[in-house]
Amino acid sequence: MTRPTPEVLAHRAHPTPPAADPKKAAPAAATELLTGAQVLVRSLEALGADVVFGIPGGAILPAYDPLFDSEAVRHILVRHEQGAGHAATGYAQATGKVGVCMATSGPGATNLVTPIADAYMDSVAMVAITGQVASASIGTDAFQEADIAGITLPITKHNYLVQSGEELPRVLAEAFHLAGTGRPGPVLVDIPKDVLQKQTTFKWPPTMELPGYHPTLHPHGKQIREAARLIAGAKRPVLYVGGGVIKAHASEVLLKLAELTGAPVVTTLMARGAFPDSHPQHMGMPGMHGTVGAVYALQKSDLLITLGARFDDRVTGELSTFAPNAAVIHADIDPAEIGKNRTADVPIVGDAKHVIEELIAAVTAEHQAGHKPVLKDWWATLDDIRGRYPLGYEEPSDGTLAPQYVIERIGAIVGPDAIYTAGVGQHQMWAAQFVKYEHPATWLNSGGLGTMGYAVPAAMGAKVGRPDKVVWAIDGDGCFQMTNQELATCALEGIPIKVAVINNGNLGMVRQWQTLFYDQRYSNTELGTHKHRIPDFVKLADALGCVGLRCETKQDVDATIEAAMKVTDQPVVIDFVVGKDAMVWPMVPAGTSNDEILFARGVRPAFDQDDV
């Protein structure tokens, strides 16, 4: 394939501008006369948007002309708008900055709906910029018209339909501010074509107009003191940690609080890496496919110290039976989450980092006053449970390759400093279970929406944002076929991600449910990637400008992973051909109590007896 020239790569590798701050970043104090499109690009430059993922089209085309000349904003031409959205999400999750994607009107904008919804469910800071038909044509069913502001109203933190060029700087500054502060989330900015084309005035910095937006960062002192009192008196406390801790960059203070209290820690799917897996107080991931120890700890707890988590159904199981004897401290930056699913005995509104810092001080004061609990019996029980029910898997009886082994070896060889993304399904759960995470922002996945096709474009965005990191996408053969076209983008743009396709020939998680709950009636879950090798993933990788490898035996797994690690100038795709009958265990069947957790098929831990 044709490689980009050094000059082209140098042009693409723009240095990252300063962090976005519309009050400090002032490219020009004087008023200038520019087109709306020029104002858009100048505003993005001022806000520190160093990368935009997108595809041009008629309505957004005026913006692409000044973007061509920008030395601060790198545009990455994706192959599908969904890829642009997920890439912006991966970039945001890996860097902690606001991710930006761009699309044209109509189908371009509607193709962003899935990644916008995904970002909304997982609280990811993203700004989506869409072109719109000319102002005079809005509402006439014009060519490629869609009311994208109306469509995305329920799945954005806020959205705008821009009325004039003069308001573009303010709207963009507000969009970035809203996306990245408080509870992060996606913001959409829809711009009619005539607004982009007309001349207007540009002055920076703008004055933001957000009179009702004041996220509470610092918690109320009375609530902190009451929480500390409960922590000091608890006999079976659990730190129930959600993705909000990672969003708040609070992992270091979480470690201090955990060691101060001595309480066990569970980290949700979105919080993997917030607390080191290697730490003895870490009980693992709770929920439908969590560890038995983590699920047991929550169920038998007398106090849940809930930090940046939302009591979602995949963690709680049947809500009425979740942690039935536990008092609840619930801290979240979004007051709407507190009490939404589970009543909080001590509600705390605030940024997780500030909350934890103040809890440390208050708990320390309780300890100094002689109120320090003894958790020896609690830990004896938990150590016994996790010793009896460790994570594990059985080797396939038919001699095929175990997918869990593949993922376990990827984690062991690649190590905890890499960034891992995953699609959705069995491989996602195995990646959450068998890769060991030691650092925040190293595990990226679609948790709330469960979006198949997330892994490859998210890995692309993560690698663009963190070029110093090794980035692996752990994908399924079903997920991979939804967005693998973005590997062409990676090859042409010099983005050398690694993709491990866990190829079991089926939609694996759906097949697992059909095995367990539908009498093994496998309706429309076989993909043909085993029986017919359609597509042949090695040939597909080659066609997309990547290095393609295949591994079918256990003895070749390590060598194949190591071969992929040696390739640093191209994307790599590995077709791991694995058995089709592997299942994800443990499992809490949907709609049942966590007490019904199955350790393996037909094996249920003894949760009904009082072990405490």
Give a verbal description of the structure.
Residues 35-149 form the Thiamine pyrophosphate enzyme N-terminal TPP-binding domain. Belongs to the TPP enzyme family. Its EC number is 2.2.1.6. With 612 residues, the protein is of the alpha/beta class. The protein has three domains: 6-202, Thiamin diphosphate (ThDP)-binding fold, Pyr/PP domains (Rossmann fold, 3-Layer(aba) Sandwich), CATH 3.40.50.970; 221-388, 3-Layer(aba) Sandwich (Rossmann fold); 403-577, Thiamin diphosphate (ThDP)-binding fold, Pyr/PP domains (Rossmann fold, 3-Layer(aba) Sandwich). It has 24 helices and 20 strands. The protein has a six-stranded parallel sheet, with helices on both faces. Strands 11-10-9-12-13-14 form a six-stranded parallel sheet, sandwiched between helices. α8 links the parallel β6 (158-161) and β7. α4 (81-95) packs parallel to α6 and α17 (403-414) packs across α24 (557-566). The longest helix is centred in the middle third of the chain and has 17 residues, at 352-368. It is globular and about 70 Å long. The N and C termini lie far apart (64 Å). Mean pLDDT is 94; it is low at 1-20 and 22-29.
